[in-house]
Structures are given as C-alpha cells and as structure tokens.
C-alpha cells in the first residue's frame, strides 16, 4: 500500500477535526451519483424508466365502438357528456354548465404557458451559462492556485537548498577546525608530558646535591639556578594545564555547535525531501487522497523570518566558535614556544652554572692537592728535623758526662787543691752551656713535634677537604651533569 513520506512524522491526525465515517477518506460533498466524478451535480437527475405493472384492458375502460377489430376485449370508455348523461343526467348537466372555459381563457392560458416556458428556458440558459462561467473560473482559479503553490514550493526548495549548503559548508569548516584544535590539544598534552623529565632531573639534582657534606653544602649559583628552573617548570606546567582546560572546553563548545549544525542539516534534508515530493505531485499522481480538516491543523512552530534566523544564528555561532578555536590555537602555539624557550634558557643557565661550579671545584681541588703535597713534604722535612734534634740532644749526653765527670773527679782534690781555678770555672760554664743547649734543643724538639702534629692535622684536614671536594665534584659532574648531558624534550617543543 502506498504511504506518504510525511505520515510518520507530522502526526496530523491527532489534531484533525473529528468527522464521521472513515478518518482518512472524506469529501462526500464532492461525490455525485454519476459513475464519473468529474461531472458536476445538476438540478436534474437522469430518470430511469420503470415499466408499469401489467393490467389487462377491460370492457369497462374501452368503448366497443372504438375497439379495433382484432382486439378481443372491449375498448376503454372515457366519461363525457353523452355517456355521463346516460349514466347520470343531472351530473352531466351541471358539469356542462360549470366546468367549461371560455376561448379567451384558453388563449390566455396558452399564452401564459408559453411565457412560463420561455421564462424557464431563459433562466435555464442563464443558469447553464453561469455554470459554464463558474466552472471555467473555478478551473482557472484552481489551476492558478496549484501553479502558485508549486511556485512557492519551488522557492521554498531553493531556500532550503541554499541554507542546507550554507550549513554544510560551515559544518565542514567547523569539523576541520575541530580536527586542528584536537591536534593542538595533543601537542599541548605532549608538551605538558615533556616537562616532567626536566622537572624530575632538576629535583633529582637538588636531591643529589644534598649529599654534599660539611663546607661543600654551599648555597651556590648552581642551587639557585636549579630552584629557579624548578619554579619555572612548575609555572609552565600550570600555564599548560590551564590552556589544556580551555582547549577541552572549546572542543566541547565546537562539538555542541557541530551537533546543532548536523541537527539542522538533518531537518533540512528531511524537509527538502518532503517539499520535493510535494512539488512533484500533480492531479494524476498516485497516492493523493482526501484528508478532511487538514487545512485547520496548524503544526507550524516558526515563520520564514525565525526559520532563516535560526539557521543564521547557528552559522554565526559556529563561526564564533571557529574564531575562538583559531585564536586558542594561536595562543597555544605561542605559549608552547614561550615555554620551550623559557625551559631551554633555564636548562642552559643551570648547565652553565654547573660547568662554572665544576671549574671552580676543579681549581680548588688542584690547589688542595698542591697544598697537601707541600704539607706532606713539610711533614717529611719536619720529621727529619726532629730526628736531627733528637740526635743533637743525644750527642750532647757524652760531652755532658765528660764535663760532669771532670767536675766530680776534681771535687775529690785534697785540701788547698780545691781551687776555683779557670779550669773549674770553664767546666762549670761548659756544663751550664751544655745544659742550656740541651734545654734549647728540647724546646725546639717540642716545638718541632708540636708543629709536626699540626702538620699532620692540617694534612688530615686537607685530605678530608680534598675528599669532600672530590665527592662534590663527582656529584656535580657525574651524577647531576650525567643527567643533564642531553635536553630530555623531543621535537614537539621547538627550540
């Protein structure tokens, strides 16, 4: 069975005027008793001849004087003056007196009948001419209305096609812009991920540098650069995160505008199909039928102005979203380049600080090694000098013994021989001299031994400082600079 394409979408039957009989086929006012529906109903109908009931002709109806010779029954007898006079003379007399018309009345009656006939014929001719004129006018009006409706449908199809093409063009542009913005979002996400390795390396460098000991725990330019680099990386991450949130929101707005355009295009495609089918219908198309009360049903929800305004608003909204997306892509590209430049500058400054600090530590290490070498040499010399001093002290023991032995031996001289002579004085002076020399040598030996201990302490300090500097240099050059030999960002961020 043929179905209208709009029967499943308009649902006009729910709001139609309720009529008796079948709900979809009405129009009984146009039906005629003729088998051909295009013939109009006139003031007369074709009379169908119906035969009378058969009735035998009796003698009471036919006079015998007028019956044919071949007729087997009596002829019909009509009442007249003669026959009536024979049956009822009084009634026949009264009828002859009171039921007769004059010739003038007869003539007048004929003239009146002729005039009435002429009048009826003239009126019938007028009715026929007016009916023909009305049929022509209605046919022309109907044809003109149908042509005008077809023209309006054609104009409507043109308008729908125009707006559908505009919407389709805008949808293609919006989809392309959304794809570009999606690529930008991926670049921002990649840039955000690429900031994690430098941040991890900077934090790990700070952690490694905490392993320095004693005097090497210096808040130097390297540490300041690392702290600046960490702050810069976190700031860049925050900026990129905010930009990523804006891009995500803009993509949602673009998808909403895209859905609006697709919905409008779908509706226009459906309306275009219905209007195209309506534009192709004619008086001989299949599937046309009566729909009673459809002209009273008004399902419209917009006017031509609001209809075109709705599509124009959606296109303007899409254009606005595309402009925002384009600006956001430009901002994202600028921010990515700015972040890349900032990160690279901080990375380079920190590496330069590491190199300068390493050079300073190498120079300090070299000087420390030189001083250690000199200290070790001095310790060796002091040790030899101490040995010499000890030997000198030991060497003074025999002369002291000789002098004291001489004095002790001379103390046994008898009597007057115990003379304070020059020999005695010289021996006493010699003993005192030797004692002073030994005391002086002992003080020097003690001083040398104290200085030897001080040199050993200095040597230990130098060795400890040298070890600290070697460890700090190892931390800066091997651990930290080993992590920072290559910039851990791929070509996503251009620098």
Automatic annotation (TrEMBL):
Keywords: Cell projection, Cilium, Coiled coil, Cytoplasm, Flagellum. Residues 1-18 have a biased composition (Polar residues). The keyword Coiled coil applies. Residues 1-36, 303-322 are annotated as: Disordered. Residues 164-191, 438-465 form a coiled coil. It comes from Aedes albopictus. Transmembrane segments: none annotated. Residues 303-313 have a biased composition (Low complexity). Belongs to the tektin family. Pfam families: Tektin (PF03148). It is found in: Cytoplasm, Cytoskeleton, Cilium axoneme. This is Tektin.
């Amino acid at each position: 069975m043929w179905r209208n394409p709009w029967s499943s979408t308009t649902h006009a039957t729910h709001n139609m005027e309720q009529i008796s009989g079948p709900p979809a086929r009405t129009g009984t006012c146009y039906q005629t008793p003729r088998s051909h529906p295009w013939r109009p109903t006139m003031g007369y109908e074709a009379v169908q001849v119906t035969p009378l009931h058969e009735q035998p002709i009796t003698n009471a109806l036919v006079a015998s004087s007028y019956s044919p010779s071949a007729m087997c029954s009596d002829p019909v007898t009509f009442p007249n003056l003669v026959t009536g006079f024979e049956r009822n003379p009084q009634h026949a007399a009264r009828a002859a007196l009171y039921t007769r018309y004059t010739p003038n009345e007869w003539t007048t009656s004929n003239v009146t009948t002729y005039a009435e006939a002429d009048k009826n014929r003239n009126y019938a001719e007028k009715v026929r001419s007016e009916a023909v004129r009305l049929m022509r006018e209605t046919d022309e009006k109907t044809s003109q209305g149908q042509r005008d409706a077809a023209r309006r449908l054609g104009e409507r199809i043109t308008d729908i096609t125009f707006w559908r093409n505009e919407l389709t063009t805008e949808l293609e542009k919006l989809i392309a812009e959304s794809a570009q913005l999606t690529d930008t979002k991926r670049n921002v996400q990649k840039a955000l991920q690429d900031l994690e390795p430098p941040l991890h390396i900077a934090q790990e460098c700070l952690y490694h540098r905490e392993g320095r000991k004693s005097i090497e725990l210096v808040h130097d330019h390297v540490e300041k650069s690392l702290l600046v680099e960490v702050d810069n990386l976190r700031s860049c991450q925050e900026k990129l995160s905010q930009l990523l949130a804006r891009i995500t929101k803009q993509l949602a707005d673009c998808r909403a505008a895209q859905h609006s355009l697709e919905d409008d295009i779908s509706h226009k495609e459906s309306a275009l199909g219905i209007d195209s089918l309506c534009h192709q219908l004619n008086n001989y198309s299949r599937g046309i039928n009566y729909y009673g009360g459809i002209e009273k049903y008004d399902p419209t929800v917009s006017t031509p102005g609001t209809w075109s305004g709705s599509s124009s608003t959606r296109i303007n909204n899409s254009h606005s979203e595309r402009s925002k997306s384009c600006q956001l892509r430009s901002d994202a590209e600028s921010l990515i380049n700015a972040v890349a430049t900032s990160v690279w500058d901080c990375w380079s400054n920190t590496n330069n600080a590491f190199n300068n600090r390493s050079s300073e530590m190498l120079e300090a290490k070299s000087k420390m090694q030189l001083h250690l070498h000199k200290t070790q040499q001095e310790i060796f010399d002091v040790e030899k000098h101490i040995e010499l001093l000890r030997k000198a002290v030991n060497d003074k023991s025999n002369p002291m013994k000789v002098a004291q032995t001489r004095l002790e031996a001379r103390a046994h001289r008898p009597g007057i021989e115990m003379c304070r002579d020059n020999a005695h004085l010289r021996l006493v002076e010699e003993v005192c001299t030797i004692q002073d020399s030994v005391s002086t040598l002992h003080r020097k030996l003690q001083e040398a031994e104290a200085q030897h201990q001080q040199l050993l302490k200095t040597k230990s300090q130098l060795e400890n400082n040298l070890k600290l500097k070697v460890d700090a240099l190892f931390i800066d050059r091997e651990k930290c600079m080993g992590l920072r030999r290559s910039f851990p960002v791929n070509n996503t961020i251009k620098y």
